[in-house]
Amino acid sequence: MSTGQSDCLELVPPDESWAAAVWDYKAEFEAVGDVLAGTADLGVAADFASWLADLRADGSPDTVRPGRVPADTFLAVCRSDRRLVGMVNIRHTLNDYLFQFGGHIGYSVRPGERRKGYAKEALRLALNKCKGLKLDRALVTCDSENEASARTIRANGGVLENRVPEGDGFTDRYWIEVGV
């Protein structure tokens, strides 16, 4: 990890002022054919306004959309230049699917900003937010072939519980003590 790169991050709730940056983030993933993990379905959003409305609805148990769990989505932003480098989605609880495959925390780092320690720092900041949710431990998962994500999870204290089949591959399930 490059010194000084990752410690610049803060997690910021998205609002209308981030519309262009978020849409650019989405476009960068689409340009390289990568999956937008930890973005609360940004990849299938028709426009920023509807995506933001869905995020806000999912933020409360009273308004969460059917089939979803209450969750908060944050932008991982560099403090120095306000650059959007990643996103984090923190689920307050787990349904059956999330327990098996999705976990409490999903995250991504834009392709042009990888290998700089941002994922490790974004996950660390997300785990700190889990303390406010009174979670003793958080489930974080990754595709079994995604070694970079596995290293990120392990660097934050992740302990592999098991590997479960999903589609044509496997999902690795890690637990991280949050330390409420």
Q: N- to C-terminal separation?
A: 27 Å
Please give the count of helices: 5
**Beta fraction of the residues?**
25-35%
Low-confidence stretches: none
* CATH architecture tag: 3-Layer(aba) Sandwich
Query: In one word, what is the shape?
Result: globular
**C-alpha Rg, in Å?**
15 Å
> How many domains would you count in the coordinates?
1
Q: Give the fraction of residues assigned to helices.
A: 25-40%
Mean pLDDT: 94
Walk across the major sheet and give the strand order.
Answer: 1-2-3-4
Largest sheet: 4 strands, antiparallel
Mind telling me the CATH class? Alpha Beta
**Helix-strand pattern, N to C?**
EHHEEHEHEHEE
CATH superfamily: Gcn5-related N-acetyltransferase (GNAT)
By secondary-structure content and strand pairing, the structural class works out as: alpha+beta
In the CATH hierarchy, the third-tier topology is known as Aminopeptidase
Short structural summary:
The chain has a single domain (6-135), classed as Gcn5-related N-acetyltransferase (GNAT) (Aminopeptidase).
